Amino acid sequence: MSLKPFNIGRDCRVVLVYNGSRIDLPTVTGFDAAQRTHQLESNPLNDMPLFYDVPGGWGGQFSFQRDGSGADDLFAAIESGFWSAGTVILGSIYQYVTECDGSLSTYEFIGASLKLSDAGRYQSETLVTQTITFTARARNRIS
Which partner from 46, 63, 84, 95 sits 20 to 30 angstroms from 22, CA to CA? Predict the structure, then answer.
């Protein structure tokens, strides 16, 4: 096995787990995530300012080709659960990254709140792409 000099987009897989069920989104075409922080600052009279970034969760989005009704069914269930019982259940997002040395790193975004920010555009001879935006309580390394 030869080593790769850097990661490319194909080195990442994403799996969504919501309410204990795996949601299959076979053709994920993009994934973005960023740490959220709250910045604190101190302005001492006798020194330069100090800044502290306190972890405040994660946010991001992923896009995928519509290969089935998985995402549409998920968000219909989320809405139905809210309007019938007033409940909102959080999910988890798993990111699998194949590292340059061939090893696999797994990250779990826990307590993820999901939004179907783009349900897709249906047009002749064009792939339908959907986008899910998320915020999560934390990102943990699993392996």
Answer: 84
